[in-house]
Design a protein that fits this description.
The complex is a heterodimer of chains A (115) and B (111). With 115 residues, chain A is mainly beta. Chain A is built from no helices and eleven strands. In chain A, strands 2, 4, 5, 6, 9, 10 and 11 form a seven-stranded mixed sheet that branches. Chain B is an all-beta fold and 111 residues long. Chain B is built from no helices and eleven strands. In chain B, strands 2, 4, 5, 9, 10 and 11 form a six-stranded mixed sheet that branches. Chain B has a five-stranded antiparallel sheet with strand order 1-3-8-7-6, with no helix packed on it. The radius of gyration of chain B is 13 Å and the shape is globular. The chains are: A mainly beta (115), B mainly beta (111).
Chain lengths: 115, 111
């Protein structure tokens, strides 16, 4: 099966600019996650979707970050305006379910550098 | 709040050595535990998934164990190879299906 697709792979922007990332999960996977991984740390969950509804966005900085998953398939994550501390790898993952039997499949990530 | 700790943070071994990576978590009420591998500049590759009712899982030279009551998991790598060099991440799935990660162990296997 095809994996989780993410684009772009790399992005460099100046602070206060806007940026958007795109994720296409594995076909049929109902659950989609966005994670932020700062260099040297483990990934941190930003938002979880079940189909096109938000399940958990408690760690999403809502003053500058937004995400949507239209039609329960692709998802976009936006940062507006970006800060220096947003420099990180943004990982998208999908799962066929949210229960205990389901593992996660991650995409290759988008590496964001804010200068 | 679930917290996951991985020890050591970095490990360097000669090729052929058997090694153990450690993971501990504070809340034993987990659904499952997953070990991932991350190569520099790449995403995460799932290695092993252990359900809360299981004690261990094996895949090739990898063996992962889970002791839920003590909040510990180990990843055993047999006969290590230079191609095993990567960062290994442990993650636990708790209530609400959130996956909480440790900070990883950076492994270097020297030829």
């Amino acid at each position: 099966e095809a994996g989780v697709a993410q684009s772009p792979r790399y992005k460099i922007i100046e602070k206060r600019q806007s940026v958007a990332f795109w994720c296409n999960p594995i076909s049929g996977h109902a659950t989609l996650y966005w994670y932020q991984q700062i260099l040297g740390q483990g990934p941190k969950l930003l938002i979880q979707f079940q189909n096109n509804g938000v399940v958990d966005d408690s760690q999403l900085p809502k003053d500058r970050f937004s995400a949507e998953r239209l039609k329960g398939v692709d998802s976009t994550l936006k940062i507006q305006p970006a800060k220096l501390e947003d420099s990180a790898v943004y990982l998208c993952a999908s799962s066929s379910g949210a229960g205990s039997n389901y593992g996660y499949t991650f995409g290759s990530g988008t590496r964001l550098t804010v200068v | 709040k679930q917290e996951v700790t991985q020890i050591p943070a970095a490990l360097s071994v000669p090729e052929g050595e058997n090694l153990v990576l450690n993971c501990s978590f504070t809340d034993s009420a987990i659904y499952n535990l997953q070990w991932f591998r991350q190569d520099p500049g790449k995403g995460l590759t799932s290695l092993l998934l252990i359900q809360s009712s299981q004690r261990e899982q094996t895949s090739g030279r990898l063996n992962a164990s889970l002791d839920k009551s003590s909040g510990r998991s180990t990843l055993y790598i047999a006969a290590s190879q230079p191609g095993d060099s990567a960062t290994y991440l442990c993650a636990v799935k708790s209530s609400g299906s959130r996956l909480t990660f440790g900070e990883g162990t950076q492994l270097t296997v020297n030829p």
